[in-house]
Design goal:
There is one protein chain. This protein has 160 residues and is α+β, with helices and mostly antiparallel strands. The protein has 3 helices and 7 strands. Helix 2 links the parallel strand 3 and strand 4.
């Protein structure tokens, strides 16, 4: 697992690493270390070394997890996590129910030889830890001509 600055062209320069380590797991239960636990160790080291640095965590779909988001908020870090279609089903359901067919909730931009379209809904509550805790999420969904859904997009906002 790597932490480092990410640039607009996608290049990342490694700054700090955290390896998965069997000894860091629960050896009594023969449970191996995992990326979520390694993230917590890396976050602790990052916070200790770079207390005042403004950090934004960019991560893949493994991390849409209440405690990980809580840790980022506790450290005053922003985060952007890929939310797979099957992850956090209640968040996707609320997104589908709340997305507003308003132009200000849509953005289209040129990307390479094609176009990207983004739609979003702000202030979706994600409940976790048996509904004892919650965090507020802002969900952005990207569409390209190749992945347009058969329903759900506002037909009044053309994909040009």
């Amino acid at each position: 697992m790597e932490a480092g600055p990410a640039f607009h062209n996608g290049q990342v320069i490694p700054l700090m690493s955290e390896s998965l380590n069997y000894a860091e797991g629960d050896t009594a239960k023969e449970k191996q270390d995992c990326e979520l636990i390694a993230f917590k160790r890396l976050a602790k080291r990052l916070k200790a070394e770079f207390r005042k640095l403004k950090i934004m965590v960019l991560s893949d779909g493994l991390y849409p997890d209440g405690p990980i988001m809580e840790l980022c908020k506790k450290n005053k870090w922003r985060f952007m996590i890929v939310l797979q279609n099957k992850s956090l089903r209640s968040v996707w359901d609320e997104y589908a129910g709340l997305k507003k067919p308003l132009p200000e909730n849509c953005h289209i931009q040129k990307q390479g030889g094609g176009k990207q379209r983004f739609q979003w809904v702000n202030d979706i509550y994600h409940h976790y830890d048996s509904d004892k805790k919650k965090t507020v999420l802002h969900v952005v969904r990207e569409f390209t001509r190749n992945n347009l859904p058969s329903k759900g997009l506002n037909p009044d906002i053309p994909f040009r």
